[in-house]
Amino acid sequence: MAADVDVIVVGAGPTGLMLGCELALAGVRTRVLERREKPQRDSRALSLHPRSVELMDQRGLLDRFLPLGRTVPGWHFAQLPTQLDFSVLDSRHNYTLFLAQAHTEALLAERAHELGVEILRGREVTGLSQDADGVTAEVRGPAGAGTVRARYAVGCDGGRGVVRGAAGIGFPGADETLTGVLGDFAAMDTGPAALAAAREGGVLVAPLEGGVTRLVFLDPERMRVPAAEPVTLEEFRTSLTRLCGSDLGVAGPRWLSRFGNATRLAESYRAGRLLLAGDAAHIHFPAAGQGLNTGLQDAMNLGWKLAAEVHGWAPAGLLDSYDAERRPVGRAVTENTEVQTLLAELVLTETYRRPAAALRSLLDGLLRMEEVNRRLAAQVSALGTVYPATAPGADPLVGARMPDIALSEADSTAGRVYDLLHEGRFAHLDLTGEADAASTVPARWGRRVTAPALTGYDTHADLEGVREILVRPDGHVAWATRHPHPRTRDEERRAALTAWAGDPV
Ligand SMILES: Cc1cc2nc3c(=O)[nH]c(=O)nc-3n(C[C@H](O)[C@H](O)[C@H](O)COP(=O)(O)OP(=O)(O)OC[C@H]3O[C@@H](n4cnc5c(N)ncnc54)[C@H](O)[C@@H]3O)c2cc1C
């Protein structure tokens, strides 16, 4: 059966929209099928952490995102008093962009439309099957039930999605044992006394746009209530009074929601032609604001690899490297959120209240140590994500993020490395300043690789002694060499290009 499109993306949440953009950028015919008739108005996530901001920069989208949010220098971990300090991390975007999820989704949808992604809303995928040539999705839409045929399908359909089950992929982990609540209010008492009481009571207060304020907390008396049970205004006020001594004058509720700590990680991110990304692959308590960010980063890792497979030039194992690289990241996120949840739960549990408070105080002391703070900040910001190098004897840079160095020390119009990634291609950088045969070789890989002639570049400690670098479309280093002999570098370069960007055109 002929394919209607190359790839079906199930779900138009942040992950599905980002993936749609990445695939379309690489020239893949993509259809996003979304069950909801309209985009979500309420925002669960409020954070674009540093690596996600870098990704937007790499795709030339930063000008759209920055004006809609506000930057903050760090984020909390387990709501400990000492914040994670992102500002010490080596990035031009070493801050969190405080931005409502609805904006992130709207901007990604706008970009997807520009790139020609078909986003069909009001379409529920009810089943999926795969065979040797492709996948068939059963879809229920306004005109009734039908099927869509594609070469691959990716489940970006959230924690309760259908793709994972259809792919036969297990989702082991732990069921929900505790829940928190959030409320967005048009009005509340924001005087210093009320805010101090909120802090004392462990209530997180975040100003949203339009004068709306978000409150988030765990109430020990209500934290065993299942997430499926709706939150009432009365319950919210009663909990606030219990925790803070007053209901903080909350009024005009816009959205009340209960969320749980069920934590699961997909056994695999791929089964043949079916793949998973975002919440479909990992769910956890929303501690330190990592879920949406991890989903965007999954999409960035998967998009170019799946596109290479669709276009027929993917080297053996490239698509499987998606699981090898991203599942450990998913595991690390689920583990750190479980630690944060446990720390919160213990302090709210009578038996452990005192030792848990001592433990939190001890951890807070550790967080005040620069090295400890930096390490956790690198993880939560995802700036510290390094993919394992598979080639023996690889340079230490391989797998790490490429620093966004300026391409010329003297000429500010020459741009930066991330500018080279706007089209989603590999970038080969010859840092020898010799611009000889080295830069003619990547041309044999056609549009897959961009290889600007560099006449000088900004220095960076990590790049000392490095002569050539191949940057992947997702901004991680594929290959780097410090070898002094041009002929050896020539051989290494050909091997690296073939290993990552396939055979020459
Ligand atoms: C209270 C709370 C606060 C949070 N705060 C943060 C934060 O600050 N930072 C952060 O990074 N993360 C945060 N998160 C997590 C974040 O909201 C999620 O990780 C993120 O929405 C996941 O995006 P996704 O696209 O993978 O899945 P989703 O956003 O769940 O999107 C999945 C989409 O698939 C659609 N769909 C499902 N099934 C089908 C089907 N069968 N057919 C068609 N469409 C289907 C759904 O309608 C939905 O639109 C928070 C979560 C909660 C609960």
From TrEMBL:
InterPro entries named among the record's database cross-references: FAD-bd, FAD/NAD-bd_sf, RIFMO-like
Record keywords: FAD, Flavoprotein, Monooxygenase, Oxidoreductase
One Pfam match: Rng_hyd_C
Record SUPFAM superfamilies: FAD/NAD(P)-binding domain (SSF51905)
Family matches, as Gene3D superfamilies: 3.30.70.2450, 3.40.30.120, FAD/NAD(P)-binding domain (3.50.50.60)
GO MF: monooxygenase activity
Record domain FAD-binding: where: 4-337
Domain of life the protein comes from: Bacteria
CC cofactor: FAD
UniProt cross-references to NCBIfam families, sorted A to Z: PRK08244.1
Name of the protein this chain belongs to: Monooxygenase
Organism: Streptomyces alfalfae
Taxonomic placement: Bacteria, Bacillati, Actinomycetota, Actinomycetes, Kitasatosporales
